[in-house]
Write a structure and sequence with these properties.
The structure holds three protein chains of three kinds.
Chain A lengths: L1 H23 L19 E5 L13 H10 L2 E3 L9 H12 L6 E2 L6 H6 L9 H5 L1 H6 L2 H8 L12 E4 L5 E6 H6 L8 H13 L11 E3 L9 H5 L5 E2 L2 E2 L1 E4 L2 E4 L4 H16 L11 H9 L3 E7 L2 H13 L5 E4 L11 E3 L2 E8 L5 H14 L2 H9 L6 E4 L2 E4 L14 H4 L3 H14 L4 H14 L3 E3 L14 H4 L2 H11 L7 H28 L1
Parallel strand pairs in A: 1-2, 1-3, 6-11, 13-17
Antiparallel strand pairs in A: 3-14, 4-14, 5-11, 5-12, 7-8, 9-10, 15-16
Helix pairs in contact in A: 13-18, 17-18, 20-21
Chain B lengths: L6 H32 L3 H6 L12 H7 L2 H32 L7 H13 L4 H10 L17 H12 L3 H9 L4 H9 L4 H17 L2 H6 L8 H9 L18 H23 L7 H7 L1
Helix pairs in contact in B: 1-13, 3-13, 4-7, 4-10, 4-12, 7-10, 8-9, 10-13, 12-13
Chain C lengths: L1 H9 L8 H7 L1 H23 L6 E2 L10 E2 L3 H8 L3 H19 L1 H10 L5 H12 L6 H11 L5 H8 L11 H28 L4 H9 L4 H25 L7 H7 L5 H4 L2 H10 L4 H30 L5
Antiparallel strand pairs in C: 1-2
Classes of the chains: A alpha/beta, B mainly alpha, C mainly alpha.
């Protein structure tokens, strides 16, 4: 019987060794994928990108064939849960540590820096202009310069394809129909704006006889209320302070005097009841629930959301609202703008390989992705699955995660320009005239908000500048102080304490790194 | 033989019963709001106005969920994984717990310490992934079962029950000539239904509700267990809403989520009362004596 | 017969016995633990060896063997983190709440359930109180925010009593009570399962004879049921104390707001924030090791204590 135990130990030993051998093999990033060429000569690529719940793309599936026709390449896309990007990031890291990096993928949270340092990504500098000319042309030269600044070795090589958004997408939105109902003008100064909010609160613009109106507000962590911060010339995206030039130098907007004044102003609105008292507790469902129930006067979102908000409210309450652009209103002594960032990180990076066939295949995919003639095809997907013909025009069908495969190549959201976007809305109008009233709002707002947009100096800054300082990246300190100042729990003077703490807890180093990066892009 | 209940005892019992009933109702209220949301219209969910009763009553969400064939596929896969997982788990766990409850087993102490270490120290995720992948479990159906069939926590609970097993019974059986194996599966196991039911329930619920392991190890949608399938269908609810016409659709991500949450809990609620008979007073002892 | 019995008894408790002898005599035991032992090796111990990355700057491309060895760097980083005291204090306070306020509730609930007479009623109550366990914290968090929001039940009651609405989710002083109450609401019912199973092992004749001696229901509960539950209570207590510093990320994360960070920021939420950034596996492993070492120490201490005071304990 001793033998049994000895056997067990031996078995365990073997398993130990084999498991570790498994780890050891993973060292070589250039381990060539022999799976890449299938029997009939089509090169197959494993591609990873954001998928919020649609079906994956297996070999010989409908979408596989669709993409093969468009790009000439077989695209395989496994199902990887996105979950705000965190699961995606983990799965990607696990696959990479197992030596199975996808051929073409979306890097998240600045992970490209480490990969480049380790030589795991393909240097695209020379091959892109030659082999993917459409993409090379579609991305403006100055954006490629920003991408060059991502190279941690400082040599200015291009290791990825940026996510480009060449126009202002966010906007303050105001209920034009409420203004009309109360016979008010669109506000242009801060005083007028506050007067409008007061009127919204007191004069029953929704006409239901109850004082249930919420003049304005936002969401937890002081997100989605950028229209108020914008009055003080603050660079900010979805509630996260960004980087811009203050006092002549690139600075984190969260620690500027502008921010102090903005918080003072917002705190006043909160005290007066002009800001939703639950602003700092609202989740997405909570805040949009208020918007959809005809109670909110001014909010901040994507300009094109005017359509979605309007249609949702119509079904819910029967009222047809008119969500118009709230102009960027300047507080006294400040110049207001809506923050625009043209580059929001990288959309694609390529696994380093010496296999010419694979490189060519990747370039074919990227060239098709950058080809404006194909953007419509990528957007509408497969007729019957993602879209259908209405009045002779292709129309997107409503999302159905039970039947639709994930359109992983999506230039409409990561590359296309304003013109393409507006065209999309016009197509929808042509197909269904009953939606014109709502779709028109988005078209109008998209075009109107452009005049208020300003590209901030921190545009395209890689998140690697935050390396080693997660609390600065996650703005933990900022959110805590800003929230407490807005609700009145902290005195406004506490802001100075925050600035001091912020610099002491890594802000100093991050600022230095950010300024070094900025110098490189100039 | 029954002694008549005194007045004080009766009051004592009724007060306790009353308190428990109130607690049970309070506990159920929040669940009702989830249930109500699952029967509410998209508009009501969009306005965030559903409380205890459905607003704009509709079966739309339930119809969508129940008519989805993929969900049922995942459902049956999960049933199979859970049943087989529980059987395997009870086998391996009880076989480890029993010897560890014996003082004369010399390796008991070392193994207890080892088990405790597995409970307190957790493996970092990357080495764990690489180990499990290297045994070939990536995208393999067994990954729904194997990583969940032995935990130190459940094993130690089972052991503490075995420790309380009356020695006289075992001794008597040994004197009758039963070997240690036969003693274990003919005497000890049949008399330990309460703890087997408890630990089996713990394992079953873990396997039923798991999504961490499938998320890490399964990319093939055909192998999705129920919770994974649910997460896929509910998705993230991206910030920017789809612009396709929503005419004729009376469910939203939130109502669907409410419906699948209820859908996934129901089987567990249905199974539990069947297990409760093993927890009846004196159930364990009765079977030993009998 | 009597000789045989004493022989069986004698074989117990002889720790001086040699290994070979013990294996030869009790080989079925060794065989029985074998599958579990192998299982632990494969699924627990081998991956656990990977914890060495806590002492490296782990790099997902290089792997364990090609990452730079940095010794105690990550532990130093943790202990010198400017908010280390805050997260340690918060974690310990919530840990104490869990041990002192939350842990005993299932025991009390089980003792109460044991007094309910009708079998159907008992089953119904049990099923009802254990359902919340199956809701995820994301859902429960949402329900709690609704409950305490404006127009939620809590503020409606306050308004009816003539009091102003308050938003307790953004008040520091309310976080810990909400943490405790939500834990009890969600998990206490489920926690009764083990105790109910333990009580099923109690000999009913004990109650009968006590009742005949004139013991009241409360006295029976106090002097029969409760003492018989103590071994189970001790076992569960020792199992739980090992996770003293791990409170469960989901609950705290879904209940906290920036306004309550100062009382709700704990190791797990900190690790999460750090983890959002790329390749922080080494640091997060270091934090995990710290939590585990503290947990193991607590188990060993309390195990000693319980051996001394009650003969119980894990070994």
């Amino acid at each position: 019987m001793k033998a049994k135990k000895v056997m067990a130990l031996v078995l365990a030993g073997i398993l130990t060794v084999s498991a570790f051998a498994g780890c050891g093999e993973n060292g070589d990033p250039k381990e060539s994928g022999s799976k890449s060429v299938s029997e009939n000569g089509t090169v197959e690529l494993e591609v990873w990108n954001c998928n919020t719940g649609f079906l994956p793309c297996e070999k010989d599936s409908e979408l596989y064939n669709f993409y093969k026709e468009l790009t000439g390449v077989g695209i395989i896309q496994p199902y990887v849960e996105w979950n705000g990007g965190s699961n995606y990031q983990q799965q990607l890291n696990l696959k990479i540590s197992a030596g199975e990096m996808p051929d073409l993928f979306l890097p998240v949270n600045g992970m490209e820096a480490d990969l480049i340092k380790n030589g795991a990504l393909l240097d695209l500098t020379d091959i892109l202009p030659e082999k993917a000319p459409h993409l090379w042309e579609s991305v403006p030269e100055e954006v490629w310069d920003i991408v060059r600044s991502y190279d941690p070795t400082g040599e200015g090589r291009i290791y990825g394809v940026p996510n480009v958004r060449g126009f202002t997408v966010y906007s303050g939105l105001i209920r034009q129909d409420w203004l009309d109902a109360l016979d008010l003008e669109m506000p242009t100064t801060q005083d007028e704006f506050v007067e409008v909010l007061r009127a919204f609160k007191e004069d029953d613009p929704n006409g239901n006889g109850m004082a249930d109106e919420i003049p304005t507000g936002g969401r937890e962590e002081a997100k989605w209320m950028d229209h108020l911060f914008a009055m003080y010339g603050l660079a900010m995206q979805e509630g996260a302070p960004d980087w811009d030039i203050y006092d002549g130098e690139l600075t984190y907007a969260g620690v500027t005097e502008n921010m102090k004044d903005a918080l003072q102003f917002i705190r006043g609105l909160y005290e007066e009841g002009l800001l939703d008292p639950e602003t700092l507790l609202n989740d997405k469902a909570g805040w949009e629930g208020k918007i959809n129930s005809d109670r909110v006067g001014v909010c901040y979102h994507w300009a094109e959301s005017a359509t979605a908000f309007s249609e949702a409210m119509k079904t819910a309450t029967g009222t047809e609202p008119d969500w118009a652009v709230l102009p960027a209103i300047s507080a006294p002594g400040y110049e207001s703008f809506y923050t625009t960032k043209q580059v929001t990180g990288l959309e694609w990076v390529v696994k380093n390989t010496e296999d010419e066939a694979v490189i060519d295949a990747v370039m074919k995919v990227l060239d098709a992705y950058g080809n404006p003639d194909l953007w419509d095809d990528f957007y509408y997907g497969i007729e019957g699955m993602h879209s259908e013909k209405v009045n002779g025009k292709l129309q997107k069908k409503a999302d159905d995660k039970g039947t639709q495969q994930n359109l992983i190549i999506n230039p409409a959201n990561s590359l296309a320009d304003l013109e393409f976007k507006v065209e999309m809305f016009k197509d929808m109008e042509a197909a269904d005239e009953s939606r014109t009233w709502a779709l028109d709002q988005a078209i109008r707002d998209l075009e109107e908000v452009q005049q208020y947009g300003k590209v901030v100096a921190g545009d395209g800054m890689p998140s690697s500048v935050y390396e080693g300082y997660p609390d600065i990246l996650n703005r933990t300190l900022y959110v805590e102080y800003a929230s407490k100042i807005i609700t009145g729990e902290y005195d406004i003077d506490k802001f100075d304490e925050f600035v001091e703490k912020w610099y002491a807890s890594g802000g100093e180093e991050v600022t230095k790194a950010a300024r070094e990066w900025y110098a490189k892009t100039q | 033989m029954k002694v008549r209940e005194s007045v004080n005892d009766r009051i004592f019992r009724l007060v306790i019963t009353f308190i428990l009933v109130v607690l049970a109702i309070i506990t159920l209220i929040p669940l009702l709001t989830v249930l109500a949301l699952s029967f509410s219209s998209k508009a009501a969910a969009d306005m965030n106005i559903v409380n205890l009763r459905p607003v704009g009553f509709t079966f739309a969400s339930w119809k969508y969920i129940l008519s989805n064939r993929e969900i049922w596929k995942s459902f049956f896969l999960t049933v199979v994984a859970t049943v087989s997982g529980v059987l395997l788990a009870l086998m391996i766990t009880s076989m480890m717990a029993y010897p560890l409850s014996k003082k004369e087993f010399k390796a008991a102490k070392i193994l207890m310490v080892a088990a405790l270490i597995t409970m307190v120290f957790k493996a970092p995720i990357v080495p764990y992934f690489l180990t499990v992948k290297s045994i070939g479990l990536f995208n393999h159906p067994l990954v729904l079962v194997l990583p969940q069939i032995l935990t130190a926590y459940n094993m130690i609970i089972m052991r503490s029950f075995f420790q309380q097993f009356p020695l006289e019974v075992e001794e008597a059986a040994m004197i009758d000539g039963a070997g240690r194996f036969r003693l274990f599966y003919q005497i000890v196991i049949p008399s330990s239904k309460a703890v087997l039911a408890t630990v089996g329930l713990f394992y079953g619920v873990t396997i039923w509700n798991q999504f961490q392991h499938p998320m890490m190890f399964i990319q093939d949608t055909d192998l999705f267990p129920l919770q994974m399938k649910i997460r896929q269908l509910i998705g993230d609810g991206s910030e920017l809403q789809t612009l396709a016409s929503m005419a004729g659709i009376n469910y939203s991500d939130r109502t669907l989520q409410a419906a699948v949450v209820v859908f996934a809990i129901l089987p567990i609620i249905i199974v539990y009362p069947f297990l409760q008979k093993y927890f009846a007073k004196g159930a364990m002892l009765g079977s030993v004596k009998g | 017969m009597a000789e045989k019995l004493s022989a069986v008894r004698q074989s117990r408790g002889r720790s001086s016995e040699s290994w070979g002898h013990n294996i030869k005599k009790y080989w079925p035991y060794y065989l029985m633990v074998l599958p579990g032992f192998i299982y632990f090796i494969i699924f627990k111990f081998i991956p656990m060896l990977g914890s060495v990355i806590a002492f490296e700057d782990y790099n997902i491309i290089g792997g364990i063997f090609n990452s730079e060895w940095v010794g105690l760097k990550h532990f130093r980083a943790l202990f010198t983190y400017e908010d280390f005291h805050r997260i340690l204090r918060n974690t310990m306070i919530l840990g104490f709440c869990k041990t002192i306020l939350i842990f005993p509730i299932p025991v009390i609930l089980s003792l109460m359930l044991n007094e309910v007479r009708g079998l159907k009623l008992k089953k119904a109550i049990q099923t009802a109180i254990y359902i919340p366990y199956f809701l995820s914290w994301v859902i429960v968090g949402g329900l709690i925010f609704d409950l305490f929001g404006i127009g939620g039940l809590f503020n409606n009651v306050r308004n009816a009593l003539g009091m102003e609405s308050i938003l307790v989710m953004q008040k520091e002083s309310w976080f810990r009570p909400i943490f405790v109450l939500s834990s009890i609401w969600k998990d206490a019912g489920w926690g009764t399962v083990v105790y109910m199973a333990a009580m099923s092992g109690i000999d009913p004749s004990l109650y009968e004879s006590a009742a005949m001696d004139g013991a009241s229901r409360f006295q029976r509960m106090r002097h029969i049921t409760f003492p018989l539950l103590i071994p189970t209570i001790i076992t569960l207590f020792l199992l739980n104390i090992g996770n003293f510093l791990e409170l469960g990320f989901d609950q705290v994360f879904n209940l906290q707001t920036p306004m309550t960070y100062s009382v709700s920021d704990i190791f797990d939420t900190y690790v999460y924030r750090v983890g959002i950034q790329q390749a922080q596996y080494s640091f997060t492993t270091a934090v995990g090791l710290f939590q585990s070492v503290v947990g193991l120490a607590l188990v060993l201490i309390f195990n000693k204590l319980s051996q001394k005071t009650s003969e119980g304990g894990l070994w």
